[in-house]
Structures are given as structure tokens and as C-alpha cells.
Amino acid sequence: MTTVFREMLKTPGIIHAPIAYDPLTAKIAERVGFRCLDLGGYALGASSCVPEPLLSLEDVAAATRRMTAAISIPIMVDGGAGYGDATHVIRTVQQLEHAGAASVHIEDQVYPKRIHYHKGIEHVIPAEDMCEKIRYATRARRDPDFVIVARTDAMRTDGFAEGVRRANLYAQAGADMIMIFPNTVEEARLAPKEIATPLIYVNSEGNRLGRPILPIAELENYGYKMVNDAISAITVMFKNVKELFVRLKETGSTGMDQEVFRKIRKEIEDTMGLEEYYRIEEQTVEAKR
Amino acid sequence: MDANKKESTKPSTRLRKLLAEPGLIKGVNIYDPLTARIAEEIGFKFIAMGGWQVGAQLCVTEPLLTMTETVECARLVTKVVDIPLKVDCGGGFGEPIHVARTIREVEAANIACIHLEDQYYPKRASYHRGVEEVIPLPAMLDKIRIAVASRRDEDLVLVGRTDSLLTHGLSEAIKRGNAFLEAGCDVVEVFPNTVDEARAIAKEIRGPLLHVNVSGDHGDLGRPNFRWAELEQMGFKICIDATTVILLAMQAVRKGLTHYLNDGFPPDYVATDRETMKYIERVIGLPRLYDIEAETVFRA
């Protein structure tokens, strides 16, 4: 999948990657026609009821393994702050590469991460320390096609210019792509002019920091190479499941049409590949001999 | 001991009972379910899992071991033994919030006891060469207080470990040990470099003490290993041993595999060792399964 992803990067056009957080959401995205996915810490944390800053490398690697076992499209994985110093970054890259990820993004936040990051209170490490992590990350990969993404949160903490400076430093240190968080539409428009490396924009709907949500065509016009959709799947899951459970609790019934259920059940069964297993059983243990 | 766990009380409650009884709790570090089961079968009443051995077993090294892996390895052990297990939770895998999650995961894995230490997190590999740093005492007390407050199993035994003896000297280690107890630790773990330091620790720290023997310890540190009788006499409450089990096992594996590769056949003492094979089958509970099958699917 690493090579598939590298090819996508070489091909013109923006890559649209929604965030999935488990094998089923990943498989739905694949069947709907997405060519690439992102496993994001926020969504994985929410689905595990463990806030992102508390997720361990092994939690993320295990989720990656379960997802890559189910899908045949490349997945970019949120490697947080690399889970420590350079020595830990090496293991992060190796574990996620081994888990089948096509790419990892590593950010310049402090490690261990703090919960206050979710409130917009962030701390970034010195740019040189981050460059060191990136250099070790690039050396740690076994597959040269494994894509190392450096994420900088410095636009938020230290302003646009510092974000741009860091993006260019990280690219020099060997990052294949840069993930940035412009604070305004104007910054989002300007960033690709200032940073030569392929850029990733993150549409994080409902963010409390006023970071703009931008149409994909517009991001492509600006010159972004990829746009990741941060939280929509987990948010929609939460809303719908909660509404269902409230209804079920209050009325004792889902209130849904049985025909709809039958249709969705069939779709779920198709998504997890039941038909294929029926065929295997028919040829073996359930064969009419 | 067969495959069925028989005890109904929580392992942490049983460890509290051992702590309340007189005498040294004689434990040993194991690194997987089989070594744990063997320790239990031989008669050990307390076992521990340390980062050094688990890091070696997984070929990950302790500084890179995640909380998730540590707890998973421990869970594999607690599933198959009755005796209480202590787990090395290092620097709590982060800041106080990470300590809080660690406690939840530890309790869900039926672990009886953990230690938290005042080393920096993320841990550095050079710690294994004796290059250590400790976090400021107030930061460590924060972690301990949050650990205490996060406990849902009030019997979970919290050991506070300080590595400050090496970095700051005896009086700092004693000061920290007592501060850990005041913050809610049940036991203190210190690494004395001499017999005199061990005696001073036992005299000055006002709570139960845990000592760690380390076979094959690095020559540059030269920390003493003590006999149980000596520790008991000095007033220590728990002794564990960080490395003996894996050194024993790996000595044998290395020697035997070298022979195998050179000779094209396993060493005679292994090839003909019916007794150990039978022993392992008994320790892992195979005979009990034979009985169940005889009563069910193979019933005449």
C-alpha cells in the first residue's frame, strides 16, 4: 500500500482521505470509493473512550493492524508526537509500518501529550528537536515508499510565519509531506505558496478554534495535495447511536422500518464479506456430497 | 497446581494479607505465563514483572515498552496464576493523566501491585548504563496522589520507587521514600548501593520496604544482592529479583541451540528429557483437559 500511496502523491489532483477509526468504518469508506484513509487519534480515542493524549503506541498500532487487515487502500496513521524521543520515534515508525500503514504523521507537540491540547492550549517543542525526530523517522523506515508526514501545530501557538518556517525546516529534515493548521482562510490560501513540499489540510468540523472548514476544490486550487476529514465519522456515529438508544430506552422500540433493517443488515454482511465465507463453506463443510 | 484458578478473593486483597503477616514476602520476577506458573507451582507466593525482562522477552527494550504492552503481558500472567503479581509501571507512562489511565488498565488486568518510579518519562535507554535522572519530588508526589485517587480497587498495592539514591544520595532517597508514604504509597522501593545504605534505608524510611536483587548486574553499578535472611533481619518487607529467571532460561537456550546448530541434533540431555516435558504439560494443565474430554466427548 505504501507504493500505491506514493503513486497517488505523484498523480495530479488532491487526495481526499476521511478519518476512519475501526475496521468497519474503514471498510465502509473503501466500498464507497475513497482511495485513501486516515486513522486519527481523536476518533480512535473517542471510540476507545480513552482521550487521544492517553493512547499508547501499541493502542494505535493494534487499531492499525485490525484496519489494514480489512481494507485494500492505503491508510495514513496519526503517530502523535512519535511517542517520545528519537529512540521512541524509531519504534513508532517501525511498528506502524509493520502494522500495514502507508504513512505516519508525527507532530511537534510535547510528549507526553496533555489533555489541554483539546482546549487549544498547546506546547510545541523546539524546531531543531522536531527535525531530529524527523531525521530518525526517515532512517527508521524499512520501506522507502513509507511516507513520513511532519505535522506542525506552530501556526496556532506561534503564528503563521513560524508555522511556515517550521514546515520548510521539517521538509529539509526529510519529511515527505507537511500537515499544517492555518488559523484563517487567508493563511490557508497563502501556505502552499510559502511551502514547497506537498501539504495536507485537515478539515476539523466543529473545532472550537475557528479554524476554517474549506471545500475540497478550493483547497486543490490553493495547491494542497491532500485533505483529511478529521471527525465526521465518529461524530455521526455518536449522534445516531445516541438518538437510537434514547428512543429505545424511552419507547422500548427502535421505531425503524423492518425493511430498512433488512437492507442495512445485508449491507453490513456484504461489507464484512459473509458471502465469501458462505462460498467457502459450500465448497467444504457444507458441501452437498 | 492445576489449570483451574481456585482463589476467590482478589489477588490484591491476598497481597494485603501477606503484607499484614510477619516476615519477608519472597518474590521473584517472571516474564511470561509459563515462568509465572512454574514459580507458583514451586511454591512462590508473590511474583513480579519488570520492564527489563519484559523488554527483553519482546525484544523491545524497557524504555520503548508501552503501557499497553506491559499490561497485556501482565494480563496473560494473571489469567493463569492465583498468586499476586506486581507490575513495573515505570514513570507511570507519562504525566498524572497517563498515570490515571495506567491505574484503570492495571486494575482491569487483575494486577495486585504496581510500582511508580521517579525517573523521567519517556524513559531513556542509557538508564540501563546507570545514566539516570529523576523528576522533581513535587512532580512525583502529584503522580502518586493521582494514582491513589484513581484506584477503584482499594487493595491495589502502590509501591513508590525512587532512583534518587544514585543521583542525589542517601538523604534525598530517605526523604523521598517518606514523602511517597505520606502521599499514599503502601511500600517504598529504593536501590541501595552498599550494605550500609540498605541498613540506613531500613532504619529511616517509615514504611514497608521492597528490595530488588539483580543477577548479572552491571559491573559499573555493583549494587549488592542480599539473601532473604539478611533482608528480613534488616527489616525489609518484600524481595523480588529482576533478572534471575530470564538469565536461567536464556543460559540454557543459548547453550542448547548452539549445540543443536553445530551438531545437527538436540543435546542428549534435552532430547531424552521426558520428565521436563511431562512437567510442563502438568504445569499448563493438560491432564485436567484429558479428564474433561474423558467425561464428555470421549465418554464410551
In summary, what is this structure?
The complex is a heterodimer of chains A (289) and B (300). With 289 residues, chain A is of the alpha/beta class.
Describe this entry's structure for a reader.
The complex is a heterodimer of chains A (289) and B (300). Helices cover 51% and strands 12% of the residues of chain A. Chain A has 289 residues and is an alpha/beta fold. The longest helix of chain A is centred in the last third of the chain and has 20 residues, at 232-251. Chain A is globular. The model of chain A has no long low-confidence stretch (mean pLDDT 95). Chain B is built from 14 helices and 8 strands. In chain B, strands 1-2-3-4-5-6-7-8 form an 8-stranded parallel barrel, surrounded by 6 helices. The two termini of chain B are 28 Å apart. In chain B, 49% of the residues lie in helices and 12% in strands. Classes of the chains: A alpha/beta (289), B alpha/beta (300). The A-B interface holds A 50-51, 53-54, 56-59, 62, 83-85, 87-88, 91, 111-112, 114-115 and B 60, 63-64, 66-69, 72, 93-95, 97-98, 101, 121-122, 124-125.
Topology summary:
The complex is a heterodimer of chains A (289) and B (300).
Chain A: H1 2-10, E1 15-20, H2 23-32, E2 37-39, H3 41-48, H4 57-70, E3 75-78, H5 86-98, E4 103-107, H6 127-140, E5 147-151, H7 154-158, H8 160-172, E6 177-180, H9 185-194, E7 199-203, H10 216-222, E8 226-229, H11 232-251, H12 258-271, H13 274-283
Helix pairs in contact in A: 2-4, 4-5, 5-6, 6-8
Chain B: H1 11-20, E1 25-29, H2 33-42, E2 46-49, H3 51-57, H4 67-78, E3 85-88, H5 96-108, E4 113-117, H6 137-150, E5 157-162, H7 164-168, H8 170-183, E6 187-190, H9 195-204, E7 209-213, H10 228-234, E8 238-241, H11 244-263, H12 268-271, H13 274-284, H14 286-295
Parallel strand pairs in B: 1-2, 1-8, 2-3, 3-4, 4-5, 5-6, 6-7, 7-8
